[in-house]
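User: For a reading group we're discussing how well predicted structures match intuition. Take Sulfate adenylyltransferase subunit 2. Before you show the prediction, I'll give you the sequence so everyone sees exactly what went in.
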Amino acid sequence: MPAALSRLDVLESEAVHLIREVVAEFDRPALLFSGGKDSAVLLKLAEKALAPAPIPFPVLHVDTGHNFEEVLHFRDRRAAELGVRLVVVSVQDSIDAGRVAEPTGKWASRNRAQTATLLDAIAEHRFDALFGGARRDEERARAKERMLSFRDAFGQWDPRNQRPELWNLYNGMIRPGENVRAFPLSNWTERDVWTYIEREGVELPSLYFAHNRKVFERDGMLLADNPFLPRDPGEQLVERSVRFRTVGDMTCTGAVPSAATTVAEVIAEIAATRVSERGQTRADDRAGAAAMEDRKREGYF
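Assistant: Thanks. Here is the predicted 3D structure of Sulfate adenylyltransferase subunit 2, as structure tokens, for the group to look at:
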């Protein structure tokens, strides 16, 4: 009798199936690649799904200009190692062109400004499907996503206008100008992702592991010292041993105190926490599920 598949084997099989379906059904897919842990796992899954052939689609990064340098170096190196085409589009270019305004205020972040840049990139390159690393466990708006999440000709997402997904049957039929976001990691949890990283030896940026860094506290979050986020009076820099559970802009991504320097130690930390990585470390997600749903309706990731 064949051995039963583990939970991780089932999740991997589901993700590989979706990647192959998208490659078969769509003309111009691409993979959204931020350099974070979820997109690193997506690249590994794409390798597995399409081996021994090389990955046939480009990786797309919407660069806000406020990224961690460690992540950008990792992004460039991994794309070169895999021999995939890296497409980088810039939020700064969208600001310079007057497409979006530079955000201001205490929690000013360019994350929402990414929407216009992303939609312009989709139109320019005629992408009809984008792989993303979103997971349903992250927050409630993402929990409404299908594996193939339909976007209309304006790039907008409507949770009431999504196709049924019965068993593993996916409807990839779209009209010109429409596109989908494909989420192979939909049913994964943060712990699943890290367990897969451990099993497959997936490489990550050093930010995900404990290191000494100058940080300051704002509204209960530890933010990295950076040139894009002025500190208020009284926000003193201190050096702490921290790591990042998720990777986003330096302006809104918080660190957590940690001594975990290995994948196994990170998994042990995750097992003990009761707060999602985005809820604990992303200032732009603290506005609530309704705010995230509004951003997604506008065409956000």
